Amino acid sequence: MQYRCPKCQSPKIMPVAQAGSPAVRPVVPKSLVFLIPAVFILLLLVLISIAMWIFGDGAGSTLQVATVVAFIICVIAGFLFYRDLPDFKISMQGFMQSQKKWKCRECNHEWEI
Ligand SMILES: [Zn+2]
């Protein structure tokens, strides 16, 4: 199994959609679906808090509670994702191996395995 372009050895390769055969998608764990927006919300709340500390009299108590809640959700989702990680890896490997056609983003070289 090659994860590099055979022409320029770049690791920046992407699978090419195969016509006719059903696309095999890796099974994305629910914890990851949950974790990504949670991390975004946390980052947003932290940024708003920092902005309020700089430009105002500090973050309001509602914002502080929201930030703490978002942080706790992130920790829980992170923990769940950590537990799902082995299954996710296997699923991703299956997806990578089922993919026969690849394209290099560096030199546009296409090849089949
Ligand atoms: Zn290449």
TrEMBL record:
Keyword Transmembrane helix (UniProt): yes
Source superkingdom: Bacteria
Keywords: Membrane, Transmembrane, Transmembrane helix
Record field: transmembrane: 32-55, 61-82
Descriptive protein name: Uncharacterized protein
